[in-house]
Here is the input.
Amino acid sequence: MSRTRFVLFLLLLAGAMACRGPRPHVDEQQTMAPARPGAPYTVVARLRNGGAGEGQVEVDVQLVAADGTTYRGSRKVDLAPHEQTVLTLHIDAPPGDYVTRVSTRYPPR
Here is the structure.
């Protein structure tokens, strides 16, 4: 392979790697019941970009009741390479016992 082709290959490879985007993960999550009647539930999630790419991810939060009723919230978050951040989301739901599910999606919808 000629030197020019090799340099071109390296440039294309570097460009492709720069366009990878983030690899979002939810490391921790915590759900807090409303502080007073009628207030929303608060979900706090620690997010981490496990990759060298950057971009916007969508974070979906679900509070799921025993009967399957689901209350949802979502937010888009920009993540830099290897960044960690904390997201707080408020979800209106009646008093009850819920299972919390936090997921991430890249690219966002």
In short: The beta strands are 24-32, 41-49, 55-65, 70-79, 84-91, 98-105.
